[in-house]
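Re-run with default settings, no changes from the original entry. Doing this only to confirm the output is reproducible before filing.
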Amino acid sequence: MKFKYILFVIVFIGFSLNINAQNTIPELNQEIIKYVDSVIGTKVERGECWDLANQALIKVDADWDREYKYGKKIDPKKDEIFPGDLVQFEKVTVKYTKGNATYTEMMEHHTAIVYKVLEKGVYELAHQNTEFSGRKVGISKLDINTVVHGRMYFYRPTKNLKK
């Protein structure tokens, strides 16, 4: 009986922490993730990586420069990254090992949306125009510690207050 009670308490606390973590995600980011959920596995506009970010930001009425600055610039080493934040890759090379094989991926000029934060510096990204999902929206994992070259810029979407 004591074991069941302890297990219940552990599950309850874990569930409560998860709900609280979900509540800390900025509202605009939550709306972006809802949009991404609605288009996973489909082609957004022309299927370019930028098209997914563009449509997500339009749908939530975000304020951005309509190019590659998607809101407030944030630093993944200092700031908390949330699902719904956007990432711009410039001349990025990623190298990682899986089993006995080493893989290299290049993102010359690419845009993605943070879909999940798995741990600090490790994310699931939603993006399209990739080798793994083609022109449809897919999800892939990125550990920023595997980036060996190039720059990544993280942005927090902000509400359009100009209206």
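The helical segments are 2-24, 27-39, 49-59. The radius of gyration is 18 Å.
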